[in-house]
Design a protein that fits this description.
Elements: E1 3-7, E2 14-18, H1 21-25, E3 40-44, H2 50-81, H3 86-94, E4 102-106, E5 122-126, E6 133-138, E7 145-150, H4 160-173, H5 182-186, H6 203-222, H7 237-250, H8 256-265, H9 277-292, H10 304-310, H11 313-317
Parallel strand pairs: 3-4, 4-7
Antiparallel strand pairs: 1-2, 2-3, 5-6, 6-7
Length: about 325
Amino acid sequence: MRMKTSQLPWCGVPVLEVENVREWLSRGIGADERYLPRAIQLFVDRAVPVGDVEEFLVRASDYLAGELASRKTRLRRISRATDLASDELEQLLTAQEHPQRWALCFTEHGGLPAVAGGRRDRGVIPCSSMRNHGVAWLGDGDRPETWLVTARKPGQGWDMDSDIGHESAHAAFAPVPLFVDPGVMEDVGVSLVDVDGPDALDPQHVVRMLYFYSELAVVAVRGEARSTNTRLPVDDPEELYQLMKLSELLFPGIGFSRARVVCARAHSYFDPNESDEIFELVAPILRLLPNLNRFVDAVRPPDLAELREAVNTSVLSSS
């Protein structure tokens, strides 16, 4: 393992960077490395022992070998349960036009690196529910550089399932947009339930929809149950149904009508591990993501015209 002097791109803090980290993580994985994010960096605090970094890379590589094998098994289940052909699924999960750069941060005590506030041209937005995960940006234009940033929880070791399995899936095929505001996701007053139709969607509703798409795609492909009322990232069963209904109206013809029926039949309660119903719910989302990924580094959520324009005829004709 070789490390070089570097700095965190989004804040300039001096660190060490592991060279060829993607090759390290893909050792023993073989051809399945195509399911990994294309761009991976590992930044290390200078106080972290080299042996700890090497041990982490070995553990992460071993974990990803099993993780990607599991994903391939679930892809076969998705193909059998939906109208998504295996070659289409392969394309959706391995060849996105706009994957997300993945920055692993091995900080001395855990947690995301501290970033001085007050700068509009750089920073990190922590995840609303997992504060050691976030999205970083550099630049003050409409399209800054962005990274999905992952650290371990403060005072804890690396959680292979959450920090490596879940986050690698996001960076590979379901990026988390820069404009996702933790306040919108935590505000109980913001919900899709009372939205009458697509034309009534406010920017914060669009944020919720695109964030839910990203999370639902990951939990379906990984078989990742949540401790919520739906067992999915959308806690409110009524909001989950409304998400499918609004999606059907906004993006007709790609499978949300079927997803809405499945959602009603299951009473918005799903078992991502054992039941194939989750695949019918998420199939149209997987089709949408390559088109929506163009907004991943946008500083504001797209409006309805931009959303509709993003879903081009090639997506509609594939359903």
